[in-house]
Amino acid sequence: GLFMSLGRVLTAMVTPYTKTGEVDYDKAQKLTEYLLTHGSDAVVVCGTTGESPTLTVPEKDKLWAAVIEAAKGKGIAGTTDNETAFSVDLAKRAEKAGADGLLAVVPYYNKPPQEGLYQHFKAIAHGADIPIILYNIPGRTGINMQPETVKRIVDDCPNVVALKDSTGNLDQVSNLRKIMGPD
Question: What is the pTM of this model?
Fold first, then answer.
């Protein structure tokens, strides 16, 4: 499907900076090319590894454009925030920049209920037409997205194609597999 065309090794890349603290867009392109020729099937730009919470929107726009150009069809943009409307706007901006997919993290700090998670991701999925990877990382967000919520999102949002699960909970992953099926 859409997701597997991106490959199996999707590397969350750092955001390079100059010595004076500016984003180094040229180095970001070189890093993208390096990763894609050294074992990565695709790259994730502006994830938390890439310090997305500290980047301004204009920096994200320029960074997405630079990395997506260098990635040549293998660029996934981390676009979410803990505020839904802003996350939808970021998703649209990344799609316009040419992103091949989006990484959408569970809203951090707010600790929404499962219904809130469903509504958040549904809004993002309906705001973008490219593949979306959900990202569940309760150690950083303070909330665990339950398998039933993931299934509900996937059932209602055809462009949600994958889950990055950082729970470390194999029972939860087994339950997710059981309710989601083999795909």
Answer: 0.94
